[in-house]
Design a protein that fits this description.
Layout (H helix, E strand, L loop, with lengths): L11 H7 L17 H40 L6 H43 L4 H26 L9 H33 L4 H17 L44 H12 L10 H14 L4 E10 L2 E8 L10 H11 L6 E5 L6 E7 L6 H4 L16 E6 L4 E4 L6 E4 L6 H12 L5 E7 L14 E4 L2 H25 L13 E6 L7 H13 L5 E7 L4 H4 L9 E4 L4 H8 L3 H4 L19 E5 L11 E3 L4 H14 L5 H7 L2 H14 L8 H12 L5 E3 H11 L1 H4 L8 H15 L7 E2 L8 E4 H9 L3
Parallel strand pairs: 7-11, 7-12, 8-9, 8-10, 10-11
Antiparallel strand pairs: 1-2, 2-4, 3-4, 5-6, 5-14, 12-13, 13-14, 15-17, 16-17
Helix pairs in contact: 2-5, 2-6, 3-4, 3-5, 12-13, 12-19, 20-24
């Protein structure tokens, strides 16, 4: 065997040194390293990627954390204050409370409907024995349900206020439900889609990064929201002695102690002093904060509450807006929402745009009656013949304390108000001032009533409830207007009559304008057009202000318009389409009832001389019947202004005397129609004057008019028969020949009364 020693042929040092050569160092003897350039490129790419990742994370992770905190904030209901949760809990009790009453009303109405069907059948066909028993049982059940409903209505709502632990449990339970049913499934769906379809990450990834980037630049503050308007009803308010201690929380929603700086403490103390409603505000600053919060919560771009003053009746404010119009606050939805947020009475918010600044408005919030007796003051005493018609007279007060002072000279006035709105009272107040004048007399016209007849002895001429006489008086006044126009030209008095004691003005009070005949309406409108220059002035009253009631579209053309409680269409018809937005809210005034004065005598006004045309409420002082009678007697004794000279010059003295004789003869009122006949006529009018009404239809109105008298037979099977029998007896006792008749054109031929018969019976008393 031959052995070889090759050690001498191998380079010993070079082999071992090659193991420790650094690739980054140039080795001229070893030649170029084939893997150096790709490694450097990979390292640079990794460095750039790490830099981009750090840059992206720095600008998106805060936003993603904010998004997660927002999701937790929503899921855990941390945006709800403890008071809102308390109101949710109490509202559930209130809903149950109202449902009980609603169920009781439904049950009562169902029973009454079943009784009504049996009663109608009894009136038409009679009842069998079982049906009579059924009717008796239904009567007993109706009484029981009526009594039960009365008890429920008398029960006050007395909720059980939740404790802090119950509120915390309510929040935790609903938060767990939200987290389990919304947040967890949403995250699970996102992960599942990403795993099963990795390509979807090309969409979700940029979307998440974009959302995180935006939220990093625009973080959403995690604060508690204001209590929603629907939870601000008075029934849900906490009692005065109720205390709710809420835990403080950080902006990310985790309960933790926070460092509090002195400035933060001052702001927190100020927040704690912000009241929940205007009724709780003690300073102008607090009231301004409450109002500003309510206005902004309704989406209005409020710039500032420039002024807040406490008034005897509440608060008055001056607001400026950045955009939009202050008139928007009078829109129905916004107006009602502000009423709820500010806890005011239904018509307790008055909004008046500033005519000098389109971006500003006066706002008045009523917490109490602005027209208390001590504010309005007593009726001023005006001695007989003590003033001139051209002088100003004090009639009342505005809600801001400004006196309602104006002259009636040259005034053509229309007062519109619903029944109970105080129309007759305002007319009487104006007439009281006229009858104190030495150079003016008062005429009184009313087609269906006595007008300003409470001042009868101080009224120069009165024509009431006689259309022919009213037309003759209007003809006389038209003739006087023509005669005075000729006299003015002859005397050289210019374009208007010179009022004096020898040539007095005539102020005509016309009540219930719509009830005038068409001929009388036409003559009245002509007199309104001609009388101003001739010192024949009209003060008219009507329940409605639209053309279809007045006969012509004359209302907006009159120099002065007063509006009490009336319809919205009356406001816009008389004051223009934008009147509601400007703040003329006569549609919110409440007419008086038999037992409540409400807003009777309160008016909005335009065109009164010397008074600004502002949408502000005025209260006209009431002239009681006793005061009117005393003043009228005193003025009659002192003597009324004499028309002899002026009418003699006009050649109308004898015509005036003839009219005066007729009016005085007519002043003895005819016997009044019996109340039962008037009730029947009003029933036909309420049903739009059909040719006939059945006893069943009449019964509803009779009961509404006098329940004690006509509902005595509600529990009897022959209820309608008894009502029909006693109705005939009531008519007979009143000495009237008004008989019922069988209405054969109706199914079942029920008994009833004819409209023509009722009208004929009334005609006998006219």
């Amino acid at each position: 065997m031959t052995s070889h020693d090759d050690s001498g042929l191998l380079p010993e040092v070079i082999v071992y040194q090659g193991e420790f050569v650094d690739d980054d160092e140039s080795q001229p003897d070893a030649g170029p390293a084939p893997t150096a350039a790709p490694r450097r490129t990979a390292r640079r790419i990794a460095h750039a990627a790490a830099t981009a990742a750090r840059f992206t994370a720095a600008r998106t992770l805060p936003g993603l954390r904010n998004a997660w905190a927002l999701a937790v904030h929503w899921a855990a209901l941390r945006y709800m204050t403890g008071d809102e949760i308390r109101r949710h809990i109490v509202k559930k009790q209130f809903d149950h409370f109202t449902e009980r009453r609603d169920d009781a009303v439904t049950a009562r109405n169902t029973t009454l409907k079943q009784m009504s069907k049996l009663v109608d059948k009894a009136a038409e066909d009679g009842l069998s024995g079982p049906e009579k028993n059924r009717l008796r049982d239904l009567g007993t059940e109706a009484d029981r349900r009526r009594n039960g409903l009365a008890v429920l209505n008398a029960m006050p709502f007395a909720p059980s206020q939740p404790t802090a632990e119950q509120i915390s449990r309510w929040r935790g339970t609903r938060g767990a439900v939200r987290f389990t049913l919304v947040v967890v499934p949403a995250l699970g769906a996102l992960v599942t889609v990403t795993i099963t379809a990795p390509a979807s990450a090309l969409i979700t990834g940029p979307a998440l990064l974009g959302g995180g980037w935006w939220l990093s630049r625009h973080p959403i503050p995690l604060t508690a929201r204001p209590v929603p308007a629907e939870l601000l009803i008075p029934e849900l308010d906490a009692p005065a002695d109720y205390q709710l201690d809420e835990p403080r929380s950080t902006t990310d929603g985790r309960d933790a102690p926070t460092e509090q700086h002195p400035a933060d403490g001052a702001e927190a103390a100020a927040d704690e002093q912000v009241p929940g409603s205007l009724a709780d505000a003690r300073t102008g600053e607090q009231a301004a904060v409450v109002l500003a919060g309510a206005v902004r919560a309704e989406g209005r771009d409020l710039a500032e509450v420039a002024k807040a003053d406490q008034e005897p009746w509440g608060w008055s404010f001056y607001l400026r807006f950045s955009t939009g119009s202050p008139d928007e606050l009078n829109k129905d939805d916004i107006y009602k929402a502000l009423i709820t947020r500010l806890r005011l009475r239904r018509n307790g918010l008055l909004i008046e745009g500033d005519p000098e600044a389109g971006d500003s408005a006066f706002v008045r919030a009523l917490l109490r009656d602005p027209f208390a007796p001590d504010v309005v003051g007593p009726l001023p005493y005006r001695p007989p013949l003590s003033m001139s018609i051209v002088e100003e007279a004090d009639f009342g007060v505005a809600m801001d304390g400004t006196p309602l002072v104006f002259s009636l000279a040259g005034l053509m006035l229309l007062m519109v108000a619903d029944s109970g709105g105080g129309k007759s009272g305002v007319m009487l107040a104006l007439a009281e001032a006229v009858t104190a004048c030495r150079d003016a007399v008062a005429f009184n016209l009313d087609p269906v009533g006595t007008g300003v007849g409470a001042l009868d002895e101080a009224i120069t001429m009165s024509a009431c409830m006689d259309d022919e006489l009213i037309q003759d008086v209007l003809d006389f006044l038209l003739a006087l207007c023509s005669a005075r126009a000729r006299q003015r030209a002859r005397y050289g008095w210019g374009n208007k009559w010179r009022v004096s004691e020898e040539h007095p003005a005539i102020v005509v009070f016309v009540d219930e304008w719509p009830q005038l005949s068409d001929e009388a309406k036409a003559k009245l409108v002509r007199a309104l057009l001609l009388g101003r220059k001739e010192a024949v002035w009209f003060e008219a009253g009507s329940q409605f202000g639209t053309r279809d009631y007045l006969g012509q579209a004359i209302g907006p053309k009159l120099s002065a318009r007063l509006l009490g409680a009336c319809r919205r269409v009356d406001v816009t018809e008389l004051l223009g389409g934008g009147a509601i937005a400007e703040g003329y809210r006569a549609d919110l005034l409440q007419a008086a009832t038999h037992t409540q004065v409400n807003d009777a005598g309160q008016i909005y006004a335009q065109g009164l001389p010397g008074m600004p045309n502002r949408p502000i409420r005025y209260q006209v002082r009431e002239v009681s019947e006793t005061q009117a009678a005393q003043l009228a007697a005193e003025r009659a004794v002192a003597g009324l202004p004499d028309l002899t000279h002026t009418l003699t010059e006009a050649g109308l003295w004898q015509q005036y005397q003839d009219l005066l004789t007729r009016c005085r003869a007519d002043s003895t009122p005819p016997p009044a129609p019996p109340a039962i006949l008037l009730t029947l006529r009003e029933t036909f009018r309420a049903e739009q004057d059909p040719d006939a009404l059945t006893v069943a239809q009449l019964a509803e109105h009779l009961i509404a008019d006098d329940a004690d008298r006509w509902s005595r037979w509600d529990d009897r099977a022959d209820r309608l028969a008894m009502i029909g029998r006693y109705l005939r007896k009531a008519l007979t006792d009143a000495g009237m020949e008004l008989s019922s008749t069988r209405l054969r054109h109706l199914p079942g031929e029920p008994t009833g009364y004819l409209l023509d018969d009722v009208k004929a019976a009334l005609q006998a008393f006219s």
